[in-house]
């Protein structure tokens, strides 16, 4: 079976607040938006933000929560981590962890979107980002 993820869908409370975070914070533009869901075309997959009640009903997961997880957005330079964290906070996010150097190398910090979804903003010199934005796992 092919290893791929087609869509990641995040349950959210308010579309306008979420769209501000992803639009003003990351600079992402929706490819489709309705009264309850917004889609963003990513490199090789689609990110969706869907009103939590509708997502819970559709997936039959009402009242369930997933445990700890994070999504990551890698940047091409160490100097890009802190400005992006600051931009995301100014767009409605909450700083979870200030940027610092983890023991395994690189530089990273964490921010939560307005609905609490954790995003790691990271630079890793061993994980190259190609010209079209694809990240390759490296050691």
Description:
The chain has 139 residues and is α/β, with parallel strands linked by helices. It has a single domain (7-123), classed as 2,3-Dihydroxybiphenyl 1,2-Dioxygenase, domain 1, CATH 3.10.180.10. The protein has 3 helices and 8 strands. The chain has helices spanning 15-25, 52-59, 81-90; strands spanning 7-12, 32-33, 37-41, 46-51, 70-74, 94-100, 107-112, 118-123. The strands form 2 sheets. The chain has a 4-stranded mixed beta sheet with strand order 1-4-3-2. The protein is globular and about 40 Å long. The two termini are 25 Å apart.
Report a brief summary of the structure.
The protein is α/β, with parallel strands linked by helices and 139 residues long.
CATH fold descriptor? 2,3-Dihydroxybiphenyl 1,2-Dioxygenase, domain 1
As for the number of domains, it is 1
N-C termini distance: 25 Å
* Unreliable parts: none
Q: Rg from C-alpha positions?
A: 15 Å
**Which superfamily, in CATH terms, is the homologous superfamily?**
2,3-Dihydroxybiphenyl 1,2-Dioxygenase, domain 1
Helix content: 10-25%
CATH architecture: Roll
In percent terms, what proportion of residues is strand?
25-35%
Tell me the structural class: alpha/beta
Main sheet, how many strands, which sense, barrel? 4 strands, mixed
Instruction: Give helix and strand order, one letter per element, not per position.
Output: EHEEEHEHEEE
Taking strands numbered 1, 2, ... along the chain, how are they ordered across the largest sheet?
1-4-3-2
Mean pLDDT over the full residue set: 93
* Number of beta-strand segments: 8
* Shape estimate: globular
């Amino acid at each position: 079976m092919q290893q791929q993820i087609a869509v990641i869908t995040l349950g959210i409370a308010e579309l306008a607040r979420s769209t501000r975070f992803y639009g003003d914070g990351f600079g992402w533009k929706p490819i489709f938006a309705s009264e309850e869901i917004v889609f963003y075309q990513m490199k090789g997959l689609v990110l969706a933000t869907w009103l939590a009640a509708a997502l819970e009903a559709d997936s039959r997961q009402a009242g369930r929560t997933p445990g700890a997880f994070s999504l990551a957005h890698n940047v091409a330079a160490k100097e890009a981590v802190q400005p992006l964290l600051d931009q995301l906070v100014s767009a409605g996010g909450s700083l979870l962890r200030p940027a610092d150097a983890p023991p395994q190398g690189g530089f990273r910090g964490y921010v939560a979107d307005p609905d609490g979804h954790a995003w790691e903003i990271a630079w890793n010199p061993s994980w190259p980002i190609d010209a079209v934005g694809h990240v390759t796992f490296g050691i």
